[in-house]
Design goal:
Elements: E1 9-16, H1 22-38, E2 41-46, E3 54-57, E4 60-65, H2 72-87, E5 95-98, H3 101-114, E6 119-123, H4 128-135, H5 141-157, E7 160-163, H6 166-174, E8 182-184, E9 207-212, H7 220-227, E10 237-242, H8 250-258, E11 265-269, H9 273-281, E12 286-288, H10 294-299, H11 304-312, E13 316-319, H12 322-325, E14 335-337, H13 342-354, H14 356-373, H15 376-390
Parallel strand pairs: 1-2, 1-5, 2-4, 5-6, 6-7, 7-8, 9-10, 10-11, 12-13, 13-14
Antiparallel strand pairs: 3-4
Length: about 400
């Protein structure tokens, strides 16, 4: 792989891009902001069997690491070497913005060895040492300790840190970082105006919606248990718009069958944004039942599904956690319940199902809140202002 141009800006992420995941939405807006500001750039991401390893879009070059290595850690290390080799071909870099330590280590190492003076920005949406054990429970403490040391190297040596949540910022401060080094720029949301009712939507029935990924910390199992308390709503359906492939949802299909909910659940997979927004718009409300766990409490996040639902005007029932209260700051903006309590979640859902005027008011207030504080246009301007400040 050889880049055809010499770039001033690099945005790097060990993530598949584009994809239906929320991470891809964040990558798009942040990378586009960087490239608009610098007049083009190099985007280094991960590909798959459907995405080519190279793409040229005007003055933006996209390189994708496409080696299909089954072992996650071996694949991540190979990606790091891949970036390092390409960095050797880029003598004019002025700013490198990276999303994870797999990208950060080669960028920081190259800067040190080459004597280059480019600025480095570590965008911390999460730390693999906290997140990966949920995906790979067999990871050893020795491996996690090595990972933490690489993360530490990156957040200590990077010139600047940006993060989408005050909870994440506080966690980083507890790890020894100066608050002055960290800038919080939350996630945003598009505010669509038109929608078409999906053909697959229940014609005569009502539905609630869950959308996004299905990792254990998302609390989808809590929602399924809550559905068991709503059996008296005979026509009520749960629509699940999963950002993953169908084969990765087999566990939940079996659980749903055991719970006798098969006829209650409608599945959709990896929908384009416009189609997803329409499903969300016509739902009674959406549910974000995040778990009360280390990933959500100590690390933190900025749940894109909550922002997007509010922007569409669909009310949200969510777990009452600090990361959620950063967005839903009062009871007129959404319905918050204690995490990991299916019966309490069901009661909150029942209230919204029974009081349509309340649903409508929460939906309208939430949409206005996003328009005033959380649009992608606003967040991109905040990021541009940040870039201009650090490059003085």
């Amino acid at each position: 792989m050889i880049l055809q141009q010499s770039h001033k800006a690099l945005y790097a992420a060990f993530d598949v891009y584009p994809s239906a995941k929320g991470a891809a939405t964040h990558i798009y807006h942040n990378a586009q902001t960087l490239f608009d500001w610098k007049g083009g750039g190099w985007l280094s991401v991960v590909g798959n069997e459907k995405l080519g390893d190279y793409q040229l879009e005007g003055n933006i070059e996209i390189t994708r690491f496409t080696e299909q290595i089954p072992n996650y850690l071996v694949r991540a290390q190979a990606y790091s070497q891949y970036i390092y080799d390409l960095l050797e071909t880029q003598p004019d870099l002025e700013v490198c913005h990276f999303r994870d330590h797999w990208s950060g280590v080669p960028i920081l190492t190259h800067r040190q060895k080459s004597g280059k003076k480019y600025k480095t920005i570590y965008e911390i949406n999460g730390l693999p040492s906290i997140e990966l054990p949920y995906r790979y429970p067999a990871l050893s403490e020795r491996t996690l300790a090595k990972m933490r040391s690489l993360e530490q190297l990156c957040y200590q040596q990077a010139d600047y840190i940006i993060t989408p949540s005050e909870v994440i910022k506080n966690n980083l401060v507890s790890l020894g970082l100066s608050p002055e080094k960290i800038t919080v720029i939350t996630n945003g949301a598009d505010v669509p105006e038109t929608f078409e009712r999906p053909e697959e939507a229940p014609e005569n029935g009502r539905y609630i919606i869950y959308f996004g990924a299905l990792q254990s910390w998302q609390g989808f199992d809590t929602l399924l248990k809550a559905m068991g308390y709503l059996a008296d709503y005979e026509e009520l359906k749960l629509v699940v718009c999963a950002s993953t492939k169908q084969k990765r949802t087999r566990f939940y299909h079996k659980a749903i069958e055991k719970m006798g909910l098969t006829d209650k659940v409608i599945w959709q997979y990896q929908l384009p944004k416009r189609a997803l927004y329409s499903w969300v718009h016509f739902a009674e409300f959406s549910v974000a039942p995040l778990k009360e766990c280390t990933r959500n409490l100590e690390q933190g996040c900025c749940p894109l599904k909550i922002l997007e639902s509010m922007a569409i005007g669909t009310p949200v029932v969510a777990s009452d956690l600090p990361v959620v209260r950063e967005i839903i700051q009062s009871e007129n903006l959404g319905k918050l319940v204690r995490a990991d309590r299916p019966a309490e979640l069901a009661r909150a859902m029942r209230i919204l199902l029974d009081y349509p005027d309340l649903r409508q008011q929460i939906g309208e207030d939430g949409r206005h809140h996003i328009i005033n504080h959380f649009t992608w246009q606003q967040k991109r301007q905040e990021l541009k202002d940040f870039y201009e400040t650090i490059m003085v």
